[in-house]
Structure formats: structure tokens, C-alpha cells
Write a structure and sequence with these properties.
- The complex is a heterodimer of chains A (81) and B (412).
- Chain A contains four helices and no strands.
- By secondary structure, chain A is mostly helical.
- Chain A has one domain: ACP-like (Non-ribosomal Peptide Synthetase Peptidyl Carrier Protein, Chain A).
- Chain B is 33% helix and 20% strand.
- Chain B has an eleven-stranded mixed sheet with strand order 5-4-6-7-1-8-15-14-9-10-12, with helices on both faces.
- The longest helix of chain B is centred in the N-terminal third of the chain and has 16 residues.
- Chain B folds into two domains: 243 residues, Thiolase/Chalcone synthase (Peroxisomal Thiolase, Chain A, domain 1); 153 residues, Peroxisomal Thiolase, Chain A, domain 1 (3-Layer(aba) Sandwich).
- In chain B, α3 runs parallel beside α6, α7 packs across α13 and α10 packs across α11.
- Chain B is globular, with a radius of gyration of 20 Å.
- Classes of the chains: A mainly alpha (81), B alpha/beta (412).
- At the A-B interface, α1 and α2 of A face α2 of B.
Chain lengths: 81, 412
């Protein structure tokens, strides 16, 4: 199981790969849409890759609640246990 | 009637990553066909292990996040589009008067089959959400439309190996019918994947000259044994003459006519007497307001198949009569391989360059020409077209399903 910092680092790698952003820009308080300029299709791609990386299930209907990177990290952390 | 001119060219293909290097390689008579070195090349017992692959991979041109959103067919289209658009001087045009018509014969085959591999291996939940936008055959033209904010319409007519030429024909018609002032038109294909290779091989359509890849594409040669799969894209910027002249654009050539017919004969084989092909050439010339006497050059479809090459050649001879003795015939697939949906577009780029430079590119690998060939074939080294006066040239493209497209270009 990954801790919060490991989840953030792993998620940052996925986001960087998808968007070309630097991993350092992917911080807990950043909004996927407003700060990182991630559209809905890219978000779904990131979710699919994160599910695989952390071996969790993120239901489609939950994705809309993941506004910030922190929301996603918290969800993944909880889903792991 | 609105005259349509060509103001920009772009390509990436097995001879070069842009128009200048491609044209140089073509005039030098180089082959872009090589033995495949991909990790899958020897995995499945394929009968054919060579193809014409890009010399400049799209990963060297596009950023990684950008490329990840596109199937290779769309990536190649975008590379060619950027070159063509910049070459045209990035024209300022009302977005609602700018169109995109970029076709693929097969579509996002890499995306589709890779997604299926992932699903079989990891389950349905691992199928990525961009799969559909990447595999759809209109994806290249949609990305071109996005790239340039082209809103007059974005189309992708599909007609197998005639798709690229049909796209240029449709772009021509968009301008002539008043729907657009500028259209980015062309074709792309990225089908060098074990499945399409094996499927074409199963039709006995591909050359099996594994021991001599560079010599495998040999249109009109008596020992031709099938086509060689190639990949890449060609894109042209078409513009109304009025629009081009108003902005002082450089004009490569005029696109004066398109002829499109269907054989209605067989799903893969061409009509044996080539009537549909000949009619496409005739209609194209009529639409251009020209006669056969005006034709100085033909860039043939000529894929190096035992049957197809001579049906077309007899059609050209039949249409042009004795004037065929004065027409320089080039079969550039001898160098590039067959780009399927990209072929008609790349060969339009060759045809336009030939008119601009009054030089017909060579056909390589013809050591023993078919004795029936009664057109003046340019072999091994380029030959000069007449130095003076207006010249016209025809670019032929034919596709499985009996699709025939002939484009008539003329010197600027």
C-alpha cells in the first residue's frame, strides 16, 4: 500500500505523462480543470491509469467529485484499504 | 468558375520528413523500403518482413503528450499539415471559410488493435477513454480542423487507396462550390502493423521479395510481384486563386480538375479493361477544360502488382493515343512503397513538384519493362518536362472497391 506522498508522486507522474506538465506542478491543492487544464477525456485517462497503478477502483460517478489532486489522493488512499 | 491553386505542401514518408528532403531523395532515385526491425517483425511467421517506414518518426517532431492523444495516422497528418500550412505562409483566413479534408484508407488500426490487446490482457476497465477518438477514421481530419480551427467543414472520404486523392478532389470541390476559400487536404496512413501486413499478404497483394526490400516495388517490371506497404502523409493547401493572389501567396500549381468514377465490378480487382479508370482521367481533363494534348506528365497509381499496373498503362495509352509517346510517366511508389490512403496525397505532392520544377521523378527497379508498356516511362534518373508553356499532369489513384480518382494539375 502506498502512503499519501507515494500516491501524490505516482499521480504526478501520470499527469505529467498525459499533459506534459512538470511533476512539481501537480500539488494537492491544484484543481485538475482550473489549474492543470485537464479536460474530461484526459481526466478519464488519468483515472484509468491510476486505477491500474494503485490497484484500486474509481467508479465513473466518483470522478466528478475529484476536483483537486488532493481529492484524488484521498480517494485512492481510502480505496486501497 | 473559381480557379483553385496550390499554395502549400507538406509530407512525412519513407523518403523524408519534409517536402525538400523527399523530393531530393526521389530525384536521386532512392528507395525508402527496408527490412522491418520492429520487435514483432519475426514473431508471427509473416510472409512479408519489409515495408516503407517513416525516416523521421513522429516522436521526433511532436511532443509526447500531443502524440499520446493521436493515433499514428493522425500524428503523421499533423506533421504534414504543419509543414504545408507554414509553407503556405500561414494564411490569414476567416475560420468559417477554411476547410479540412484529410483521409485515411484504414483509420486508427494501431489504436484499435492495441486497445484490444490491452483488454484481453488486463480486462475491460483498462481500455483508455481516448480509444474511440483515436481509432475513428475521421480522427486525422478532425485534428487538422482543431489545429487550424477550420470550420467550413472537416471531411474524410474513405476509398481505400484512392482516399488521399479523393480528399484533394473534395477540397477542390469545396472551393469551387463556394464553401471555402482555403482547404487543407490530403491523406495519411499508419498501417505497418502485423495484422494489415498479414491480411494484405493473404490477398497475395504484397511483394514477397524479402531478400531484396529496396528492389521489391518495381512497377511495370516483368518480375513485379505485388505492392510494398508504406506509411506516411501528404498534405496540400488549396486556395481560391483570388484569395491566394490577394495575399500575394506563392503559387506552386493549379488544380484544374478531378474525375471520380467507380468500377462497379469487384470488391478488390480492377475492371480488366480499365474503363472506369480511363473515364476518371477523361472526366478530370474535361473538367479542367483541357485535352489530352495538354498532358505532359502522369504520376501513375502503378503499385507493382502483376495485374493492376498494365490495366492502368493500357488505359493511359488508350486515352492519350500517340500523344502517350510524349508523356513522361512516373511510378513513385517504386521508391516510397504504397501509402494506401496517403498515396494519392503524397503523389499529388510529387506531381505538383514535377510541374513546378518541370522535372519528372524517376521510377526505380525497372530492369525489364513489361513489353506491353506503351507510355514513355521515366526510369532511374529524372527527366525534364518541356521548358516552356503551360503543362498539365495527371495523378491517378485507385482503391480496392473499384474507386478511381484522377486529379489534373497544371503549371502556375
Amino acid at each position: 500500500m502506498a502512503d499519501k506522498n507515494e500516491i501524490l508522486a505516482g499521480l504526478a507522474e501520470i499527469v505529467a505523462e498525459e499533459t506534459g506538465l512538470d511533476t512539481a506542478e501537480v500539488q494537492l491543492d491544484k484543481s485538475f480543470t482550473d489549474d492543470l487544464d485537464i479536460d474530461s477525456l484526459s481526466m478519464m485517462t488519468i483515472v484509468t491509469l491510476a486505477e491500474e497503478k494503485f490497484d484500486v477502483r474509481i467508479p465513473d460517478e466518483k470522478v466528478k467529485d475529484l476536483t483537486t489532486v488532493g481529492d484524488a489522493v484521498d480517494f485512492i488512499e481510502a480505496a486501497q484499504s | 468558375m473559381t480557379t483553385v491553386v496550390v499554395t502549400g505542401l507538406g509530407t512525412t514518408n519513407p523518403l523524408g520528413g519534409d517536402v525538400a528532403s523527399t523530393w531530393d531523395a526521389a530525384l536521386a532515385g532512392r528507395s525508402g523500403v527496408r527490412t522491418l526491425d520492429n520487435d514483432w517483425a519475426e514473431t508471427y511467421g509473416m510472409a512479408v518482413n519489409f515495408a516503407g517506414q517513416l525516416v523521421v518518426p513522429t516522436s521526433e517532431v511532436l511532443s509526447r503528450p500531443e502524440a499520446k492523444r493521436m493515433d499514428p495516422s493522425a500524428q503523421m497528418a499533423i506533421v504534414a499539415t504543419r509543414e504545408a500550412w507554414a509553407d503556405a505562409g500561414s494564411p490569414e483566413v476567416d475560420h468559417e471559410r477554411l476547410g479540412a479534408v484529410v483521409s485515411s484508407g484504414i483509420g486508427g488500426v494501431w489504436t484499435l488493435l492495441s486497445a484490444w490487446d490491452t483488454m484481453k490482457e488486463k480486462g475491460a476497465a483498462r481500455v483508455l477513454p481516448l480509444t474511440v477518438p483515436m481509432l475513428m477514421p475521421n480522427s486525422p481530419t478532425a485534428y487538422v480542423s482543431l489545429e487550424l480551427t477550420a470550420r467550413a467543414g472537416a471531411h474524410s472520404p474513405v476509398s481505400a487507396c484512392a482516399s488521399g486523392a479523393e480528399a484533394i478532389g473534395m477540397g477542390f470541390e469545396m472551393i469551387q462550390s463556394g464553401r471555402a476559400d482555403v482547404v487543407v487536404a490530403g491523406g495519411t496512413e499508419a498501417a505497418i502493423h502485423p495484422l494489415p501486413i498479414s491480411a494484405f499478404a493473404a490477398m497475395a497483394a504484397l511483394s514477397k521479395r524479402n531478400d531484396d526490400p529496396a528492389g521489391a516495388s518495381r512497377p511495370y517490371d516483368t518480375s513485379r510481384d505485388g505492392f510494398v506497404l508504406g506509411e506516411g502523409a501528404g498534405v496540400v493547401v488549396l486556395e481560391s486563386e483570388e484569395h491566394a493572389k490577394a495575399r500575394g501567396a506563392k503559387i506552386y500549381a493549379r488544380l484544374l480538375g478531378v474525375g471520380m468514377t467507380a468500377d462497379g465490378h469487384h470488391i478488390a480487382a480492377p475492371e480488366p479493361n480499365g474503363a472506369g479508370q480511363t473515364r476518371a482521367m477523361q472526366l478530370s481533363l474535361e473538367r479542367a477544360g483541357l485535352t489530352t494534348r495538354d498532358v505532359a506528365h502522369v504520376n501513375a497509381h502503378a503499385t507493382s502488382t502483376p495485374v493492376g499496373d498494365m490495366i492502368e498503362a493500357r488505359g493511359i495509352r488508350g486515352l492519350l493515343g500517340e500523344h502517350a509517346d510524349e508523356v513522361l510517366l512516373s511510378a513513385t511508389k517504386s521508391m516510397t512503397g504504397h501509402l494506401l490512403g496517403g498515396a494519392g496525397a503524397l503523389e499529388s505532392v510529387f506531381t505538383i513538384k514535377a510541374l513546378q520544377e518541370r522535372t519528372a521523378p524517376p521510377t526505380i527497379n525497372v530492369t525489364d519493362p513489361d513489353p506491353e508498356l506503351q507510355v514513355d516511362l521515366v526510369r532511374d534518373t529524372p527527366r525534364a518536362l518541356p521548358a516552356d508553356g503551360d503543362l498539365a499532369a495527371i495523378n491517378n489513384s485507385f482503391g480496392f472497391g473499384g474507386h478511381n480518382v484522377a486529379l489534373t494539375f497544371a503549371t502556375a
